[in-house]
Amino acid sequence: MTDPTDSNDNTERSLRTIREVPAEAEVLGRIRSLNDAEDYAGIIAYCESLPEEARTSDVLGEWARALNNQGQPGETEPFLKALELLSAVPEDARENHFWNFRRAYALYWLDRTIEARPHWREALRHRPGDTDTLEFIEMTDRACAAQMFSMPFEERVADFWKAFSEEEGRFAVGVQSITLGMGSFSAVAARIRELLKLIDNEKWSLGIHLPTAEDPRPTIVFSPQGWRVAAFPMREFLRRAPVELLDRWRFVLGVQPMAEDVFAKISIRLGGVSLSPAELWVTPVTEDHALRLRFTGPAFTGLTQEDVPFIFESLEDLVRFSVGEAAQMRWFNQFAIAPWTGEKVQTGNAGKTVEASGGTPAEATREEGVRPADEAPSAGPREDPRMRLTEFAAWARRKYPDLPTRTLEAELEESVEAIEMPEKDPDCDFLMDVKRIRTTCPGLVNQYRENVKDFTIEYERQGVAAGIFHFRLADDASAEAKTAARESLIRFMRDDIGPDAVLVTGWGTALRYDYVECILWSSRKALEKLVDWCAAHDEVLYAGWHNYVRDAGGIWFKNPNADGPAEEPGDEPGEEARGEAPAGAEATEANEENRLSAGRAESAEPAPGAENVPAAEHATETETEHPSAAAEIGVTAKA
User: Fold this and answer.
1) Alpha-carbon distance 76 to 110, whole Å?
2) Strand 542-547 to strand 555-558: parallel, antiparallel, or no bridges (unpaired)?
3) Residues paired with residue 219 on neighbouring β-strands, in sequence order
4) Rounded to whole angstroms, how far apart are CA atoms 363 and 634?
5) Which of 265, 273, 312, 321 would bridge 366 by S-S if both were Cys, CB 3.0 to 4.6 A apart?
6) Contact between 517 and 440 (Cβ < 8 Å)
7) What's the N-to-C CA distance of the chain in angstroms?
8) What is the percentage of the chain residues whose pLDDT exceeds 70?
């Protein structure tokens, strides 16, 4: 059947539509009139009514500005929408004061001060000396140092579980529909993710499993996808699940191993590559205390450089499905891919794999965390026999007898201890003069030392603060006195402040200070309580808090050399002024620590199974056109 509409009518209608798009000058004039009347709601409604063609970069900016002015303290939707609009502005239209100011403003009121700081400075670069921008820079720096969130993690989690409980019936119906073959996993998961939006993390994933004969409850599996740092807030989030829900739902931390017959039949497709366990071969290679899994298979024939990241992601998923996430995170976090040369293979006495073609394959490597293996170092790499991936779980259980009972909760309790060669500069940044440190979350420490902010940005988006409480006794205090003070502080955090507000993740001793490392689920509650501990311990001369944003400064609880608390900020200035300052701006005086120290100190060998390597995110690839031509394509560790 042909379209009966006359083509001339279509043309006329298109021309009429084009003529109905208002000119940018007309739109901006209308916005200015509404702005003069402080009718921000009117600006928002007007912009929403505009056709797509009329939403120019300037219009999007004014729309975002109106949302910023309309938003109130504690709200999120107006500021999130403002960020969405500003992200739609083309790159070449962002190099100006207004775009950076508006983005920084929205981030500031979302308590995302780490992300706001560079935009404030960029706004100032485009308008040097601007007093509004300068005042916001000062307030944002102070807020970043304290991270006293207007809506901390504990409140966000409580809101999620309240909303989940209210919609539990809807979720139960969705699961029942899936059981009957009429529903969709994705629909249920999408709604849960929507409720999660204020504590979500791009590294979090969730999966829904139907009730079984053994357990009549639906199961929701939350996975940090191998990222150790992301697992700590996830574990705390699940710890706070209401007890009454646990009778009807099962919430699990970390991907669990699949039944071997089920695993053998699955297939994962990412990008243009499809991988299945039955068609993959894996060779465990041990070298320099590290175990690397080298994969090959027919699917690796004709790979392009663009395929490599998808392959590594798929391989990591498959290993998790095979042995479980706890085991994958602990033992199996380095990967390599080699070109396919056929199934026939033999292993020589020296452990060197000899391909059927007689050649040694080039490799593309992904390292997901360097951990010492159980064996002593050898002169060269040692290879176990090559096997199909469907056989890997049985091999892994033989090699690591405790693998079947390993949980992600237990993995997060594992710590690494290092003896350092500290910097002797008395003005070096905190932690750079550390002599001994023990931590369950080395990724945070490593990024602090490297002045990288990826993990702290993710935490801040969730309302989580992570850092160190540092204190100093008299110069002639004994090591025993320092240890007693530190242990007293740890007990105070665990017993008096309590696990709902703080998680102790480590400790350290340095040339100048002693440290207790912690993650704060309610930063205001925890820091206010720490003031009490300082007041009760006269032997503590200096005490303060520094989060893991290295150049953010810190706050002092005790400092004999300080001139007193900083002035509290007044009303926000400028075109988007508001009367109430965010909670984070009420911090005590910031101790600016803007000097960057030299490189990382050398560390002692970590305990078996502990991470003690710099943490980075994704692939860094060698410059080759085809992976098989590369000697190695590296991806550094997840932390």
Assistant:
1) 6
2) antiparallel
3) 209, 250
4) 10
5) 312
6) no
7) 60
8) 79
Tokens at residue 184, please? 């969709």
Model confidence pLDDT, tens digit, residues 189-239: 999 999 998 898 889 999 999 999 999 999 999 999 999 999 999 999 999
What pairs with residue 205 in β-bridges? 223
Collapse the DSSP code of 549 into the 3-class scheme (helix H, G, I; strand E, B; otherwise coil) and give the result: coil
Task: Name the 3-class secondary structure at 113.
Answer: helix
Q: What is the CA radius of gyration of the chain?
A: 28
- Could you tell me whether strands 416-419 and 434-439 are parallel, antiparallel, or unpaired per DSSP bridges? antiparallel
Distances (CA, A) of 107 to 143, 151, 196, 424, 575: 12, 14, 19, 38, 16
Does residue 123 carry a pLDDT above 60? yes
Q: Which residue has the tokens 């089920």?
A: 262
User: Which amino acid would we find at residue 20?
Assistant: E
Q: How far apart (Å, rounded) are the C-alpha atoms in residues 518 and 504?
A: 4
Provide the token pair at 136: 């916001």
620 half-sphere exposure, CB direction, 13 A CA radius? 7
Across the chain, mean pLDDT equals 81
Q: Which of 66, 9, 72 is nearest to 32 (CA)?
A: 66
The H or E element containing residue 364 is: strand 364-367
Map out the domains of the chain with their CATH numbers: 22-146 (1.25.40.10), 153-253 (no CATH), 260-408+618-635 (no CATH), 416-586 (no CATH)
Q: How far is 319 from 199, CA to CA, in rounded Å?
A: 27
Closest alpha carbon to 99 in 61, 54, 55: 61
CA distance 445 to 236: 20
Class of residue 518 by CB neighbours under 10 A (exposed 0-12, middle 13-18, buried 19+): buried
